[in-house]
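Thread: quick sanity check before group meeting

JM: Hey all, I'm pulling together slides for Thursday and realized we never actually wrote out the predicted structure for the chain we discussed last week. Dropping the sequence here so it's in one place. If anyone has concerns about the input, flag it before I start.
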Amino acid sequence: MKTTLSTLKKMYESGEKIACLTAYDASFAHWEDQSGVDVILVGDSLGMVVQGNATTLPVTLDEMIYHTKMVQRGNENAWCIADLPFMSDATLEKALEAAACLMKEGGANMVKLEGGERVLSTVAQLSSLGIPVCGHLGLLPQSVEKKGYKVVGRDRHSAEKLLKDAMALQAHGVDMLVLECVPSPLAQTVTEALSIPVIGIGAGAGTSGQVLVLHDILGLTVGKTPMFSKNFLEGADSIQKAITAYVHEVKAGYFPASKHEITL
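JM (edit): ok, ran it. Output follows.
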């Protein structure tokens, strides 16, 4: 049965964990869908794991549309989120056009954009036009040249700002929120303060669900695998079984375990 925004809200309200995973093509999208993944994220992480770039910044809107279109050809049931790539939301007009293209041409069900206060007016406008929006706080991959790859929210000021941004994003219309590389206690505080699903990546077990990069859970990462991830292909005899194991561990609350969490 096709997963809808209403489905995800019901899962959230019932306390069922939401299993999310990235995909960039039809074949992997098919096996993720068949393995019970609730949400497929077509992330601009493709710039690093598929294209071999050092960051996500070189990814273009046309490339995001292309990969989203491929994913949706292989996906039948999962909810599909597509990232707005770097600078495609620099102005309200650009953001509206990019979101429209990702949904009309790419077939995305929802768009995701990074940031807090900066994107509030954009979120409100997208939401008013009927476009489902996912926010993204914590470590922001599109801002790494300025802020670097580091945990966000370890000090009181940054923790309070993150919570304030999360509340503001919800008030302006986001339907879901991703928290990346945030200390587990803070992520749980944010999750409990909001009335929308909060999906964590490196944010502990207290969120409404989890998302990981496909290549990380299959042991295909070039370089160092993030400490908050896990190779689910170890001990599995197929990719589908590895993905199924990931979904099962998220749903059952086994993943992430304490060793994958970031503390204050």
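AS: nice. Residues 135 and 177 are 5 Å apart (CA to CA). The chain has a mean pLDDT of 96.
JM: adding both to the slides.
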